[in-house]
Amino acid sequence: MLPFSFFDAHCDTISCCAKHGWELAESPGHTDLRRGEAFAHYAQVFAVFHDGAQPPPDGMFAECVRQIETFWAQLARSPDRVVQCRTAAEFDQAEKTRRIAALLSVEGAELLECDPKRLDFAAHVGVKLINLTWNRANALSGSNAEERGRGLGEQGRVFVKRAQELDILMDVSHLSDPGFWDLIEITEKPVVASHSDSRALGGHPRNLTDDMFRAIRDSGGFVGLNFYLPFLGLDGSVNAVLAHLEHFLDLGGEKTVGFGGDWDGCDALPAGIRGIQDMGLIYEEMVRRGYGQELIDAIFYNNLKRVIFKG
Ligand SMILES: [Zn+2]
Asked: For the chain, what are the domain ranges?
């Protein structure tokens, strides 16, 4: 048993279950129930994701519904081990009954056809976070890989307003820089970057500038460190993860930063990290560097819990 709890903001494991027939109970990827049960408590945000290169013939929303059904089917196979959490009460119950807490997110609003009316469905099925874009620009905004100079249009603003009314948080990982700042201007809720690192260290446009990090911090939001090597840059070691972490802490991020490993959504992790089973390496390094227990618990678990469930 690992001596700490772990709440991670981003994985693509459900889309792998849908695509490759993986089982959540025990998968060949970066996370599964067996490994999650090694933590004092494990909570994970599972993204619905499709790259849209060959959109399904029945459309992206049909794909979204299918993947949510896959998520539910996987949970239904292990009801004594894992439970979906839509509310703080359900999350507390998962902790009390020692079941893994599974949360839903949607990575790319094109999976909801960028339609604000689809947000009622998303809220109803328990989606907690939505990325306005994935890598592809869409009707709401440019992304940080495509149409990088385009921010939120009118439809994007209506989408954000409706999502926030429904208590769904906006996730800016993948969003264009102008889209980010447009969102910061209108947001009435904490802003989340579920799986992004520091641009000051990693240099990659998928990462956050220091000003972006401060804006998220000031919104009461959350930033999850991404373990994908091209975003981390540096020497690609566990120390690179710590360097990004400490950069964000230096920006006053002790209540903001945590993890969003991009598990099963990336194919190059730091040396020694095979998946969530190796989070102990990060934990041990934080202990070795003299981090206090309260800060470690905030980073590993409590920050994300507080932002999503206002706990
Ligand atoms: Zn992503």
From this structure: 6-309
